[in-house]
Design goal:
heterodimer; A: 413 residues; alpha+beta; Immunoglobulin-like; Purple Acid Phosphatase, chain A, domain 2; 2 domains; 7-stranded mixed beta sheet; 6-stranded mixed beta sheet; 24 strands; globular; B: 266 residues; mainly alpha
């Protein structure tokens, strides 16, 4: 009997030690890019390279016992986050020097394929020290299923606000199983410094529920994510758009989000990509066609970005449904716009980023922000898009939980 | 300018520089009011100043630009136009030290004419030869800086430059691809830097052709903002008016000097 008890204690201790050791895998996250119904990129961080680590996953939980996961995915990329040049913080002493580049923070990418839509996957990172904490996520919904997507941009500057919003999101995810993922409109951290990205990734980790449910992220690149030609955005999200940072995300067969990059030429290869992507969506008769990018083409505060010339004519030609933008640090919903005037069949431009960046007053004298069909304001916020079969319900939610704006968009197709 | 003495010009060049100053600063004032300015973002976003206070700074900057645009024409208070230059310098400082700055320090060369034009005009309006000599010197330096800055940006294949080229070609019915635009920018950048070197190191009397080229190119690249973005982009052209008006002013100065020299020789 004594021997048996000692055996049980030993195995419990060994498991605890193994889990602790294996939890060197930090900020485990799921990234959706091209085909979220069947593919995902699982990324985790570490204070050191977790050599020989592997992703284990299954459709049933393996939290106890032998933890025999049915599937395993190899790490296809890992390394030190490469950061951009350091800038002196405003509250730094006169003798401030850039932090030593040796500050260790490493990424690990494990792509998983052949997933079944709308299926819960349980996953854990196995390192040389054992198998870590079990998380779970749901692959993108089945076609025709009603679900919600959270949209937020500009989580930079006030990481405390980003943390608070992420905790709020975590509670929402816990209570509302229809929340499928989060689309981030870019500007994750103020600069491409490793320490600042670490803060953001740790903040995003707060969206994970207590029982380990991960909220998949669809990342868009912003202007603060590129200085110094740093690849940190790609490393943090497993190269969602390759080396160009733009891609078409077919969330379900009926819903596509084209994620564009406002930090490179809008007219060149990217416009060709956009035209091809929109043609494909037309051929496939995709019901909901959405574009998302960082710098707005119908801005609430600043100048219009290059997409106004290169992309808007295509959006209108192909009759897309909605555009999501960030960068302005306010809350905005334009009137429906077509041919640079308000039109009943026009496209609505939503967003402007309030996921942690300081908020400013939008310029209310802009024609597209006026009238009953538009909204402009400010406040830390995220937006919620509920995709029903024939309608999108949108609402802008402040970090206090108050819904400050809402609207519905009927299907065009 | 060598040993040549500048004649007392009744100053079409000075008027051109002043006109460029007025156009640039009036347009910037309009733009700051319409789209806000970098100094606002720098103070508010990056240095934690309240939105109201940063807004007040922006309003003051707009006021200074408007005053500068007018004062450059009033002899006794012409120096007030230097406040406009100060506003431009503040914008560049902010642009350089913004965390998202893409080309820190390149802005200082790129914008050289925008902040030096009031000084050029003020010195040129002076009756002394020395003032005009200084003015011509600053013009040379500023033009060379602008062409160097834009040249380097072209060599970097700046995305906006790629867009200007491709959209302009598309509008005139020529469908071109990004690699073509990048190659073209490589040539344009090299030529820009070459022109900057010529204007800086070659004897002024041999630079007449170069200045005509520079003024024409300055006008073409400014107007490209309209061929790219439509007439709504008029402000992008006017804030670059010094890119073609100041080279013309310098050319007229050199011509006047050449005429004066030949009269003396005769």
């Amino acid at each position: 009997m004594k021997l048996k008890l000692a055996g049980i204690s030993f195995s419990l201790m060994a498991t605890a030690i193994a889990i602790n050791a294996a939890d060197f895998a930090q900020n485990v996250r799921v990234v959706w890019s091209q085909k979220p119904q069947t593919e995902a990129m699982v990324v985790w961080d570490g204070d050191e390279i977790l050599d020989g680590s592997v992703l284990l996953y299954d459709t049933v939980p393996r939290v106890s016992g032998h933890r025999d996961y049915a599937f395993r995915a190899s790490v296809t990329g890992m390394g030190l986050y490469q950061e951009g040049p350091a800038k002196k913080p405003k509250d730094a002493e006169d003798d401030w020097a850039p932090p030593a580049p040796s500050t260790g923070f490493f990424y690990h990418h494990a792509p998983i394929k052949n997933l079944t839509p709308d299926t819960v996957y349980y996953l854990a990172v196995q390192t040389a020290d054992g198998i870590g904490r079990e998380y779970h996520f749901k692959s993108a919904p089945k076609d025709g299923q009603t679900f919600k997507l959270i949209y937020g941009g500009d989580s930079r500057t006030h990481v405390d606000v980003a943390r608070q919003i992420n905790e709020q999101i975590s509670q929402m995810v816990e209570s509302d199983p229809s929340i499928a993922g989060l689309l981030h409109g870019g500007d994750y951290a103020v600069t491409t410094r490793r320490d600042l990205w670490k803060q953001w990734l740790e903040a995003y980790n707060l969206t994970t529920t207590e029982d380990g449910k991960l909220l998949p992220i669809i990342p868009v690149i912003g202007n603060h994510d590129v200085p110094g030609n740093s690849p940190i955005f790609r490393q943090a999200y497993g190269y969602p758009g390759g080396l160009k940072d733009y891609y078409s995300c077919r969330l379900t067969p009926s819903i596509a989000i084209i994620c564009l990059n406002t930090e490179i030429s809008a007219e060149g290869d990217q416009r060709i990509f956009l035209q091809k992507a929109l043609t494909q969506l037309k051929t496939d008769q995709v019901k909901w066609q959405i574009a998302a990018f960082h710098k707005p083409v119908y801005p609430g505060v600043k100048k219009p970005s290059a997409g106004r010339v290169s992309w808007v004519p295509l959006f209108e030609e192909y009759n897309i449904d909605l555009v999501l933008e960030s960068d302005g640090h306010c809350i905005k919903r334009t009137v429906p716009i077509r041919g640079d005037i308000e039109a009943d069949d026009g496209i609505v431009y939503l967003g402007e980023g309030g996921y942690g960046a300081p908020q400013r007053n939008p310029k209310l004298d802009r024609w597209y922000l006026q009238g009953d069909n538009a909204f402009a304001g400010k406040g830390d916020h995220v937006m919620i898009l509920e995709f029903a079969p024939d309608i999108i319900h949108y609402s802008a939610m402040l970090n206090t939980g108050e819904i400050i704006d809402s609207a519905s968009f009927k299907a065009r197709r | 300018m060598g040993k040549t003495q500048l004649p007392i010009l009744t100053s079409l060049p000075a008027a051109l520089a002043a006109f460029a100053c007025t156009l640039t600063y009036l347009t910037y004032a309009w733009r700051f009011n319409r789209y806000s300015c970098k100094t606002f973002s720098f103070l508010w976003e990056e240095n934690g100043l309240s939105e109201e206070l940063a807004g007040n700074v922006e309003t003051t900057m707009i006021g200074l630009l408007l005053i500068s645009a007018i004062c450059i024409w009033i002899p006794k208070i012409r120096w007030i136009a230097l406040f406009g230059a100060f506003v431009m310098l503040s914008e560049m400082y902010s642009e350089t030290f913004m965390t998202s700055a893409k080309y820190p320090f390149l802005y200082w060369t790129e914008w050289a004419l925008r902040y030096s034009t009031p000084l050029i005009a003020i010195l040129f309006f002076q009756t002394s030869e020395k003032g005009k000599l200084w003015s011509a010197c600053i013009m040379r330096l500023a033009i060379a800086a602008v062409f160097t800055g834009h040249g380097i940006k072209a060599l970097y294949a700046d995305p906006r430059f790629i867009d200007y080229l491709l959209v302009t070609f598309r509008r005139i019915g020529m469908e071109t691809q990004e690699p073509f635009a990048v190659t073209l920018l490589l040539i344009i950048g090299t030529v820009d830097i070459l022109l900057a070197a010529l204007i800086l190191f070659r004897k002024p009397k041999r630079n007449h052709g170069v200045l005509i080229w520079i003024a024409t190119w300055g006008a073409i690249t400014a107007l490209a903002r309209v061929t790219y973005g439509g007439t709504g982009n008029w402000h992008e052209v006017l804030i670059r008016s010094s890119h073609f008006l100041v080279p013309i002013a310098l050319l007229l100065t050199y011509r006047a000097v050449a005429q004066s020299d030949s009269k003396r020789t005769a």
